[in-house]
Amino acid sequence: MREKQERFVVTFATTAGAMAMEEACRAADLPGRLIPVPRAITAGCGVCWAAPPAARNALEELVIREKLDVDGLYTVLL
Predict the structure, then answer these.
(1) Taking Cα atoms as reference points, which of 12, 3, 1, 2 lies closest to residue 74?
(2) Closest Cα to residue 72, out of 33, 2, 50, 6?
(3) Count of Cβ atoms closer than 10 Å to residue 56 Cβ
(4) What is the pTM of this model?
(5) CB-CB contact of 4 with 78 (8 Å)
């Protein structure tokens, strides 16, 4: 069994929002990937963006700058 690690997670109400986040992160060369939403969190579309906690500030700035439609921001153990 692998050891759980802290991750910064961004959830979305729609799949379109998740895809827009992925595109913006790739363009800005920010870390992370789309994964299924962890059971501890609920989200409308079922996928979320997971990244290292160190990327939190950069990702929050990206969400604001690009006016991305996010549902919630969390720090969780995955």
Answers:
(1) 12
(2) 50
(3) 14
(4) 0.93
(5) yes
Q: Domain 6-77: which topology?
A: Alpha-Beta Plaits (3.30.70)
Domains of the chain, by residue range, sit at: 6-77
Strand partners, 72: 11
Q: How far apart are CA 51 and CA 39, in angstroms?
A: 17
pLDDT in tens, 18-76: 999 999 999 999 999 999 999 888 778 899 999 999 999 999 999 999 999 999 999 99
Give the C-alpha separation, 31 to 74, whole Å.
16
User: Which residue type does 69 have?
Assistant: D
